[in-house]
Amino acid sequence: MLESAFAKTTITPQPAQGHELAGYIARREKSQGIHDDIELRALLIEDKSAVLLVNLDFSGVDTHIKETIQRAVARANYHRCNYYA
């Protein structure tokens, strides 16, 4: 039987001030506050195998973020997963 689940959470860093911003080549100052929260969305589709799609409001994913997601997947007992970043 095909099953699916969806989750969404806010991952905006706190405090929101003082972070370097990606994608603003002409802008040199750091963040000054929050315009929109940063979110993580996940969609799990399962049948005989599982597919997990993770969407982040980032322009890039570093090793730390990728490994954090991999650990969460392993804790949920999804050991046979392929990762694409």
Kindly report the spatial arrangement of strands forming the biggest sheet: 1-2-3
- Poorly predicted runs are none
Tally of alpha and pi helices: 1
Average pLDDT figure: 82
Radius of gyration: 16 Å
SSE sequence, one letter per element: EEEH
Shape: elongated
- Quickly give the structural class: alpha+beta
Notes on the structure:
- This protein is α+β, with helices and mostly antiparallel strands.
- 15% of the residues lie in helices and 27% in strands.
- The chain contains 1 helix and 3 strands.
- The protein has one helix at 63-75; strands at 3-10, 39-46, 50-56.
- A hairpin with a 3-residue loop joins strand 2 (39-46) and strand 3 (50-56).
- The chain is elongated and about 50 Å long.
- The relative contact order is 0.20.
- The mean pLDDT is 82.
Features:
alpha+beta; 3-stranded antiparallel β-sheet; 85 residues; 3 strands; elongated
Lay out the secondary structure.
Blueprint: E1 3-10, E2 39-46, E3 50-56, H1 63-75
Antiparallel strand pairs: 1-2, 2-3
Short synopsis of the structure:
The chain is built from one helix and three strands. The chain has one helix at 63-75, and strands at 3-10, 39-46, 50-56.
